[in-house]
Amino acid sequence: MQAYYSDHFVLPLPxxxxxxxxxxxLLRNRVEAxxxxxxxxxxxxxxxxxxxxAHTPHYVTSVVEGLLSAAEQREIGFPWSPAMVERAxxxxxxxxxxxxxxxxxxxxxxxxxGTHHAYAHKGSGFCVFNDAAxxxxxxxxxxxxxxxxxxxxxxxxxxVHQGNGTASIFADDDSVFTLSLHGARNFPFxxxxxxxxxxxxxxxxxxxxxxxxxxxLATLWQRHQAALPGLVFYLxxxxxxxxxxxxxxxxxxxxxxxxxxxxxxxxRERGVPVAISxxxxxxxxxxxxxxVHLQTLREAQRQWQAWQADRRxxxxxxxxx
Length: 321
Description:
Layout: E1 2-5, H1 23-34, E2 39-42, H2 48-51, H3 57-64, H4 70-76, H5 82-105, E3 107-110, H6 131-147, E4 153-157, H7 164-169, E5 176-183, E6 196-200, H8 206-223, E7 231-235, H9 253-269, E8 274-277, H10 286-313
Parallel strand pairs: 1-2, 1-3, 3-8, 4-5, 4-7, 5-6, 7-8
Helix pairs in contact: 1-10, 5-6, 8-9, 9-10
């Protein structure tokens, strides 16, 4: 299974900053050591034109040329630097690569991403550009260019924080279905309306969480009875974990592994390709977040193998004429 990374690009953050920048390199190290069969590749950088598929040209220019105001930088949570721009481009580029690969192979992943708080016109909550939104729009454009057909997309956002930026970007777009399962009392405190929002109480544990997920997935498929999505972006946040500093939920590592299995199995059984992003994870012990992300990638690899087996088992078309 193919996975993409961009952890060479590290932001110069002040001491004590809440963002877990080392997490991404730690995750890649563990993938290299423990996940044989996951093939890693460095992400390309998204272009200005690709970013403009989901962001306003003014915002893209402000980020790229260092014209963000102090207030805009505070809302993002990162001080501007050339490294911030390059990292943000590469994070989007990794999701673009994962989406293209998933459309060919069934499943692919990137080791960061899930920047769902970025709006068309601004960044927020450690999110500069919205990787899933840009990649969704680009995959739709490529599908139309090559095959003259509409690619319907679903975003299954299981980060503990609501995907407000994604919901806003696709609010009037019937070709993209946004699903967010998140903490009711967690950031962002002013939510946007997704196509399907499921709010969870503080302290929510495995059984309640998985029941809510099953109901949400059933609704997703029911609303797509006429035409299934052609691609799913799955934001597999580690921050619902019981050890997360910012999560406020009580989901065990085993519960999150089962979450991943249910999402990815449901997509595979319907023949819907999945591009996976790691999204949030702010463990009190950073290795706990890394371990949750790693088990997501292991499940993704199992599902990729099942996709390949399913394709090998498909009957050959009989040659006539």
